[in-house]
Amino acid sequence: MEVSCKNNKSETTNYSEEELDITTRMYPENISNVFKGHGGLDTWKNMQSLVFTMQKPNGDEMTTTDLKNSKSLIEMPNHTIGFYGKSVWLHSKDTTTYKGNPKFYYNPMLYFYAMPFILADDGIKYEDAKPLVFEGKSYPGIKISYNAGIGELPGDEYVLYYDAETYQMPWLAYTVTYFTKEKAKEFHFIKYSNWQTVEGLLLPETLTWYDYENNVPTTKRNDLQFINVILTRSPPLKTLFEKPEGCSCCELISGIDFFYYA
After folding, report:
1. 88 phi, psi to nearest 5 deg
2. Burial category of 232 from C-beta neighbours within 10 Å (exposed 0-12, middle 13-18, buried 19 and up)
3. To 10 degrees, the CA torsion angle through 251, 54, 207, 48?
4. Residue 101, CB-side half-sphere exposure with 13 Å CA sphere
5. In DSSP terms, which residues pair with 89 in a beta bridge?
6. Could you tell me the CATH number of the domain that includes residue 210?
């Protein structure tokens, strides 16, 4: 049975044209229990700032996010990426070329790390999914999709798999539509482990990506460690996310301003 996040709304509702009232939200019992299993949605909604550091081969990478408006700052050894509401900017600290895509990279790690709470956003639809069986254990699934007008890529889909006893989520499956703009058929898989309690919320220390076949995880590919996790009830400074002065180049990419600073 499919359940929408919004009462008395058609599946075709365009939420970009509507004022949303979060007090009218409904959640299915299974996703509600998952929220509770990780410390509770009310506790999460009281938080305004999230900071975490990812340990990477080329150096640590620290991300600061304003949880109320998704503004973010990613500080890397050679570059800084910022998103201040509508525009993404890239600042190069030296002559090292940034080989990624700033517009794609500024928020996916927040989405992955802030599971399951990020799946309480407006305009989400929930439905039961086929359980995931891995190493002899079965994990019930909740499929997540988006109503029209929600997010930049409403075609993205997620499946949250949870432990039926603890209601903690050890697995996430997700599709990527950013590059093709078409509905994806293959799911990628992340395993969540080494849980840590931060301000009463259960958050992972380790995310592990797995290879997959026929939409089932197979063998471990790589780990990503999250350290120095900070949640606060006060917002970060607004100026933190603003683009630096001295723009050397500015262009418009897919309807969003992208600023590059050498």
Report:
1. -110, 135
2. middle
3. -80
4. 8
5. 82, 259
6. 2.50.20
User: What are the residues whose beta carbons fall under 8 Å from the beta carbon of 102, sequence distance 6 or more?
Assistant: 81, 88, 89, 90, 258
Give the model confidence (pLDDT) of 237-257 as tens digits.
999 998 877 644 433 333 344
Q: Which residues of the chain have pLDDT under 70?
A: 1-25, 104, 148-155, 177-185, 246-262
* Of 201, 226, 228, 205, the residue nearest 46 (C-alpha): 201
**What is the per-residue pLDDT across 47-86, written as a single tens digit (0 to 9) for each?**
999 999 999 998 999 999 999 998 999 999 999 999 988 7
Domain that holds residue 100: 2-261
Residues 132-135: contacts with CB within 8 Å, 24+ apart? 132/159, 132/161, 132/171, 132/173, 132/216, 132/217, 133/216, 134/171, 134/216, 134/217
Q: How many domains does the chain have?
A: 1
Beta strand pairing status for 124-134 and 88-92? Answer: unpaired
Tell me how long the chain is: 262
CA distance 148 to 145: 10
